[in-house]
Structure formats: C-alpha cells, structure tokens
Amino acid sequence: MSLDALARAIVACEACPRLRAHCERVAREKKRAFHDETYWGKPVPGFGDPDARLVIVGLAPAAHGANRTGRMFTGDSSGDWLYDALHAQGFASQARSVSSTDGLTLRGCWISAAARCAPPGNKPTPAELDRCQPYLERELALLERVRVVLTLGHLAHERWLKAAGLWRALSPRERPKFSHGAEYALPGDKHLVCSYHPSRQNTNTGRLTRPMWHAVFARARALVDAE
Q: Which helix or strand (DSSP H or E) is residue 157 part of?
C-alpha cells in the first residue's frame, strides 16, 4: 500500500460510529467563526514529506481544526504552535497554516495521529484507538527513512509504542516513559523525543511554554542532522 492509497482508506473509514456521527454533526452545526466554510467532516490522513526523517504523532484531529480543514494540525491554535516551531527549524515552508490550500509544505517531516477522527471532548475510547491503530502501523512502515519520532502527549506516546511494536517487545520497566523533553535511543539507530501536546489546556496554563516547546524541536532538528 502506498501513502496515497493509505490516505484514501483513512478518509473512507467508517469503523467508529460514535466518532463519525460526532464529526458529521460538528461539520453541520459549525462554529460561529467558520459558519461560511464547508467543513471536511471526515477522517484525516497524515500529511507531509514521504521521505521524512522526522515523524510527529499527535492524538486526534480537533473538531474545528483538522476536522474543518482536512489537514493535520491546521486551522487551530495547536497548529499555530506546531508550524511555528517546524518553520523555525526548517521543516515547514511557512510558520502558520490556516487551510489545506494555503501553500504550506513540509520538508523532511511527516505529521500523523493516533486517531483520525475528532472525538467528543478530545477523548477517543481505547476501543476506538485500537481500531485506528492499523493506520498508524501502516504509515510507519511506509515512512522508511524516519529516524526521529516526536510524540505529543501521553496517549500519542503510548499508541506510537504499540504501533511500532515496542509495547509488547519491551517489559513495562524497559518501555520509554513519557515526560516532556524525555529522549530515548531506539533500535535501528532511531530516536524518540517526547513533548506535551500544544493544546490550550497546556499552553494557556503555562504547563507548556514557548521556550519549552521550541527546545524540543531544536533537539529533534539536531538528531535529524546528526544522522
């Protein structure tokens, strides 16, 4: 399966009725600020450079972000944080992304997620994450040049470990533990870096600051360049 074929399979997925109903309802009702826009309202595939050396794994599309625009981390405050940091480190062609047609491209980077549909309350169930996991597994297998993985948040971290086969391969004591800024050397000369997710819950409270955030991306850049 190619990345394009995988993207088509993700967009057509109907495996989680609760999530599909929620995304479609949000797309119909909309947010007042976007009432004139046509929402995407479908599962969101990964986005980026097929020759990526860095892969970023988030949790799920935002209801009025990627569920509206159809592109990961596009059209919301989390995306503003992400693309600003990627641009600063040369991974993105521009520092802000507002739509899937705004001309932004990624260089050496791919953005993925544990879940491809926006969940109510930003909380997919374990069963929903299980049903979505094969998409992440296939995506990782197709991104053959990746050497650095950046997980955004505890759930994305755990789901990446499972998709990469490390959850079962390692004992609980051996598994990489999530904490902001944590870094691990992995088999195959790869590296794992962890960060808090740039959600408003983290950024508005000061749990995640701009210097903390940019330091993680500077480290990811250094690890990619060292390969």
A: helix 154-163
Tell me 33's DSSP state. G
- Strands 109-113 and 54-58 come out as parallel
Cβ pair 214, 173 in contact under 8 A: no
Q: Which residue segments constitute the domains of the chain, with CATH numbers given?
A: 3-226 (3.40.470.10)
Report the amino acid identity of residue 55: V
Residue 112 bridge partners (DSSP):
57
Question: Using an 8 Å Cβ cutoff, are 146 and 89 in contact?
Answer: no
CA–CA dist 145, 57 (Å, integer): 16
Residue 40 scores a pLDDT above 80: yes
The pLDDT, as a whole number, for residue 145 is 97
Q: What is the DSSP secondary-structure string of 36-105?
A: TS----S----EE-TT-SEEEEES---TTTHHHHSSTT-SSHHHHHHHHHHHHTTSBSSS---STTS---
